[in-house]
Structures are given as C-alpha cells and as structure tokens.
Fold these 2 entries.
Entry 1:
Amino acid sequence: MTAAMKTAWLRGFQVCACALALAACVVAIGAQDNPGKPGDTAAKPAAAKETERPADNDPNAKPIEDGYDRPTTYPRIRMGSAATGGAAPDVRGPAGDQRKLKTRAYLLDTSISMAASITVGNSEEMTRLERMVSEIKRSLDTLAKRRDLRFNVVTFGTVSDLCAGGDPWVSNADTVKKAKEWLTKLEAKGTGDLYALLKAVFEQEPESASMMVGSMPGKPEGVSETDLKKFESVAEFLLAKVKDWRGAGKSTTLDITGIGLGEKERAYYKRLAEAAGGTYLDA
C-alpha cells in the first residue's frame, strides 16, 4: 500500500470515529431530557419532595392545612394512643423510672352559640366562649407539673387542632403555656356537629376526654336522613351512638362541662356523660 493510500485510509478512519462519538453524545443527552416509557432503562426523574409536616410534640410547629376546616372526618387529628398504632410510649420519670403515658383529649365547643353573653356569679357578664376559655385554662394549669400525660385540644363548630396533626403533647409547663396562648385565638362560628368528633375520640381511645359545650348537638355531616329518622332527634341519635361505642368495648370516659346551658340542655348532657362513663358539671 502506498503512503498516499495509507494517509487517506487513516483520515477516513478518524472521521468515522468522530462521527460515532458525536452520535453517542446526542443519544446520552436525549436520554436525560426524555425519561422514556415504562420499562426503559433510562433514569426516571426524582419524585417531588412531599410537604414536610411539623415535628410531633413541637409546641412551635406551624400548622399545615390538611383540609379539616369542617367537622366531618377529622383527618390526621390525634387524640389517643390508637392514633400512633398502640399504647402511648414510655418516658423516664425524675428518678429514672419508666412511666407509661396516658392520653387526654379536650373537646371545645366553638360554634356560633358560644358568642352569646352569659352572667357569671351575680354580676360578671362575658360570652360563653370567654367563660369556656377561662375554665379550660384552669384545667390545663393542673397539667403543668405532670410528666405522665399526653394531651390535645380540638374544637368543633369550626375545627381547630392544637397539635396540628402531630401526636398529643407531653404535659409540662412549656406545652401548657403554648396551649393557653392558642386558646386565646379561638372564635365562635360554625355549627356544633359533635358526631364526627366523638366518633374520632372513641376510635382513637384516649384514656379520658373532657368536653366543654354551650349548645345542643348540631346535625351530623355524613349521616343519612334515613338513619336520623330512626331517632326522636339528633341529640338522641348521638346518645345512642355513644352507648353503642361503649357497648362495643371502647373504654374512653367522657366528662362534660356545660357553659350557660338551660335546664333541658343540662339534663341531656348529664345523660350523655353517664352513657360515656363520665360526669357532668356546670361552669
């Protein structure tokens, strides 16, 4: 082979090699831009990062809107040990001993009826909401020195969740302070649908629940007219449901405090508290 022929052959080989390398680069870039169909070996784009939730038991956590602005299903609201899949976790006591945490749920009426004024004592006038907040703050004060209890505060009428979807807070001076600050922001509006809230409580089974209420139960969302017609009233429907839940082995006890209730309302809530294994008091 002559030198000229060798030179021509070598140049042709170099041109082919460059063309192959360029084609490989184009294919690689295209694979990055186009993930390909199911079954392709090309890399798929990373999944979008989910919105992070507040850390459980964080008093400073910023609430995330989960859509529970109506008292219907109460998604993600945690009020008992069943919410975390079992018994409440152990904690260390001051002496290093293991303590089993119990749970308590506070249920507060923030329906429009709580905007009505009542007279407390002989002369002091305030709204039912103001009276309720002052009473619940006193109750929370008893938790400030405890370390053996988790608690959450949930409202009905309009739905608010102290723990913002996280686990109930461990009781101590800091969490009680945060809870009392949160209470001052509550407003009276909406209707008093108790059914979905009480259903969630008995499903999650905190050891105890304490409800403060200033109105009769409102019409429950998600319950058919056919089911309601089996009972004399919505109140009797709710009473029957509580009896059913307790009869099925749900052990949560429910204490009820009436805020500015009339005689017939008090009589009803005494029956409801008794059916739930609790007691009734007037505030």
Note: Residues 6-10, 15-59, 61-73, 83-88 have pLDDT under 50 and may be disordered.
Entry 2:
Amino acid sequence: MSASPLLLIGCGKMGGAMLSGWLAGSEAAGGVHVVEPHSASMGDLASRKGVTVHASADTVPDGLAPGTVVLAVKPQSMDEALVPLKRFVAPGTCFLSIAAGKTIGYFEKHLGSSAAVVRAMPNTPAAVGRGITAYVANANVNGGQKAQAHRLLEAVGEAMEADSEDWIDAVTALSGGGPAYVFLLIEALAAAGVKAGLPEEFAMRLARATVSGSGELARQSSEPASQLRINVTSPGGTTAEALKVLMDPAAGIQPIFDRAIAAATARSKELAG
C-alpha cells in the first residue's frame, strides 16, 4: 500500500526545517504538498523532489486525502488558514499543529469535534536537527496517526508525548522559550568575563563554545546533569566558589528560574485562554 501524502501549511523556519527532515528520511514517501503564499520561497520548494507547491490552500485538490496536515503558520494567521482545510477532515487524516497557544479545543471548534488533532510545541534548535518537541493528542487520534505524528516531529530532533494538555503551558515556558534563556546565559557569561578583564570578542567566543560544548556533552552522556556538574567541581576550587553564588537558595539561579518559568507559564495560559 502506498504512503499517504503530507500537507504542510506554512513553510517558514520551523515548517522548512521539518520539511527538510522529512525529505532526508522516509516520511515524505507519499509526497508533500506545501502551501506557501510567499512567492520568493516557491521556486526553491518546487524544485525539491516529491514536493508540490500551492500558493493557497484553496488550490489543493479536494481528492488529495493527506495522512497528516501539518499546521505551521503563525498563531495569529490560524483562523484564516483553517477555513479551506475543513474539507480534509476525515477518519484517515490527522491535523498536527505546531502553533503556540492554540489548544485542542480551538481546533475542534474550527474543524469539528470529529477531527483528529495533535497539538505540539517544538523549539528553535529544530533548525539544526536538535529540537525537542512535546505533543498531546485528542481522543480521535488513533495509534497509527499518533506514531506518524511522532515520526514527523522526530525528523527535527526528539519528540515526547505529554500525559495531559495541561502540561503544554509549562512546556512552552521551559523548552519553547528555553533557547532564549540559554542564549542569555551566553551573553551573561561573556559580559562577566569582560568585567573580569577579558576582551569582549575573546570572552564571547569562550562563552559560546563553553555553552554549546557543555550541551553536547550533556546530550551524549548517560550521567545526570547534577553529576556532570560535580565532575567539573573540585572541592575548594574556583568552580566551587562560583557555585556558592549561583546555588544560593535565596539569591541564586534556581529561585530566578522558578520565577521566570512560572511567569512564562502564566502568560502561556493567558494567551491560550
């Protein structure tokens, strides 16, 4: 039996990264139809094997019968994007959204209560194949559709199923916004290095390489992060002295992150509400 085609709505940075991952693997075996209204992107997309480009969802053939419709448009454009897609609601089609703040209830309202919907929250390292995505499915999604959604998301990194949609706001705060916090850490390390006497460019190069290298070490290691930290920390040494400041229970990094993640989670709930 031949594979069902995929329908990708929006081919910006995240949608484009996912498309590249699918084409590099086997997930695009049934072909990919891409709806991308920006003409500057259409020529390059159309030249890729197995890809059919449409300037509008209205021009996608009614008989396409996609296995998965991937919604990769900006949240503020979603209302308009869904109007011509309701015709694809069928038992064999799953709608996979990567739009922040759009709940399963929102999609059921616009597509109908029978629609199979997976809500996912990726992050920007997907652009280099190192993303992490948490997702949750509604009751209409069958086992095969959920497995397909998982594979599509894994094309740009790791994928994890959440037990509840209630988790997604915290996921948005932690991993969705997480890259910004890591980039801020690089900025802060470099700035502190400058204050300690290093040239600005030299300090920034040290900070970037230290954070990216440590992240790769954490990814490859089977040890927990706490043990990796201990491995770097000699008793009574320079790192231990810095950690006294960073791990202070009242003024250290943990209470700051607690407040930051709580604030982002609350804002995610407001935007979804």
Note: The two ends are 42 Å apart (CA to CA).
